[in-house]
């Protein structure tokens, strides 16, 4: 059946059992190739008339001139069947807004944000920065997209990462995976890969959002990692199978990483890192932005520190999964534990007892009168606190006076 025949049948079909007509899915597949994602006007056009009528208008030349110009020469092409067959060959599928697997709740933030874009396309955000919902998502993997996205956190950072950054990202991914949270990143070298591997090592779910087709391992050096993610998590892309990883597509997909998750953690980012763009998109979607600080001397942490300095961004410093879940978890329930302070024998002493203890010499014992003079108190006050200090093994009676209890002697080392 040709595309036009499929669309005509879908336009007249009445579905009452909740299933999606194949023509609707084919229309979404065509739309995923006809224009690059992220254009405000094109998304609004499809949202207004529906996917089937949008394709029919574009193919017949009845669409508004602005929309036809966005499609350009691609409007005359039809690779939908080939795209769907490529997806089937690599165990991928096309998830569309009409499916019950569609992550409608997290992606609704993009729908709300795009409503603020002006009608005049000359005043709209650039395509690489516009908060536009996806028209469809190509998904590879056995898990359901909506279920994995429901409890997810984005972990992003520099490709040229340091050993410190990769260690932190892997630990963070592992800790989140142990708690059943999905780690979402971009599958790139550096921080992305470390976060994915940490989640996989914990047996937790992870999603790689790609800037190319889900059948195309990119970077090529991550072929094994991406294959494992496809087996245990999900590979997700707005571009159809076979699509190449063009540079501008990485900037566009950042909004999807921010939009699918409850919050974004930046582990390591240089001054011009793409991770900063993801963090700012998360802020525009009213999602928490979290930052792992690095050494002030590291160029790869400059971006992280700048995010923390931007007061309007409201970025929060985190050092592990406990801090992250405090920001994105259940209100009042997923609270991070207060760091434990090392306790010492002086903890809990009164001001008077502390002064008397400070007055005690190290070697020779002195009288209570001498302690009272140094501590600046009455002799009776000294006599009142000395027994408690002795019970705490802080002071010692020498037979002629009081002194500090000497530290225990170290046992002799072997061989001496």
Question: Which key features would you list for this structure?
Answer:
single chain, 416 residues, alpha/beta, Rossmann fold, nine-stranded mixed sheet
What does this entry look like structurally?
It comes from Geodermatophilus ruber. This protein is an alpha/beta fold and 416 residues long. Among the domains are: 138-328, Rossmann fold (3-Layer(aba) Sandwich), CATH 3.40.50; 351-404, Arc Repressor Mutant, subunit A. Helices cover 44% and strands 9% of the residues. The protein has 18 helices and 11 strands. The protein has helices spanning 3-12, 22-34, 40-49, 51-60, 65-71, 80-89, 104-114, 145-150, 163-178, 191-201, 223-232, 247-260, 274-284, 302-309, 321-328, 351-359, 368-375, 379-391, and strands at residues 92-95, 137-140, 152-156, 182-185, 206-209, 234-237, 264-266, 289-291, 316-317, 395-397, 402-404. Strand 8, helix 14 (302-309) and strand 9 (316-317) form a beta-alpha-beta unit. The model has no long low-confidence stretch (mean pLDDT 92).
